[in-house]
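Reopening: ThiF family adenylyltransferase still failing for me.
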Amino acid sequence: MEGILAPTHKKVAYKAVVLDPQSQTDQAQIDELLAQPYVTLIDTSLSQVEELIKINNPTEKFAPEILTLKATQFLEEIGKAALFNFVFYPWRNTLTVLLKEKEFSHLRTSRNKYKITQEEQDVLSTKIIGVVGLSVGQSVALSLAMERGFGELRIADFDTLELSNMNRIRTSVVNLGEPKTRIVAREIAEIDPYLKVTLFEDGLTEDNMDAFFEKGGKLDLLIEECDNLPIKLTSRLKAKSLGIPVLMDTSDRGMIDIERFDLERERPIFHGKLKEFGEESTLVGGAKTHGQAYFSAFVDFDQLSERARESMAEIGKTITTWPQLASSVLLGGAACGHISRSILLGQSQFSGRFYIDIDQYLSGNK
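Support: Ran it again with your exact input. Result attached.
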């Protein structure tokens, strides 16, 4: 027990501790946690059972007092320990009472029906998705988690949260200085403690790339959102060699790139936009020398929004880097979440570059 209560553990923890009261060992840990004056207990078990009754009986309308009575009787008959786990969040010193995974998932995804069927939800629960870069990637990861769109999520980023990140990353100032991977993993754990999230806190590197793509099962989808050009290139080449589809949002004009290397094994990376620079195998070596030219070529500089083009001209003069807005990042996260689901369920087979350009739609130029 000292482990999960130790200050050093609380600082680095990112996984919820799931304790089953039907286990004597876990029950002892629950008792010890409850004995700590600084641990907060959140017990909404009766409300969760009321919700379960409602979704399992959609044709019935229950008066509030009848619903509460039925939920109370159900808990007494089944037994709380059979239906609920105690879930401890070390970084919050909070112990929550939550339905066990099957019932938790059933209830939490009930409002997905039938935009996502139960059969589709079951398929998604077997999928492994990798997200590289956690600015747009944070919005993507949370969209996927909220819909329960994966079985395992692998997230890679070497960076810590800085104040200037908070124009586009939805988080708290209390997280300043924390690794972005840990922040995202904690947020997902607080949405759904049963989802598997694997962290690569050094970012995606040559040394850990094999593990990121294949350890514990091959990725079903790569969502690439990093700023490092060599990693953009090497991750695509790796995905292509393994037949893994790639998604990328660029946070300008709602630009989304889809590369279906699972269906088109010889498809050129970045839709062939870097062909003028040589063979794919030589591109990484030229990234330092031709980085700006590569970037302009693969984003189609002339197709960027006017404000993005103006900003590009100011980098290194009045601004330090490529600008990103929260509205664009959130749109990209939602779009990647939607397209991810379509790919993993076999509902779409297309590759290419697509725009969800709100300004263009509002101007009538669809």
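The mean pLDDT is 96. If you still see a failure, please send the error message rather than a screenshot.
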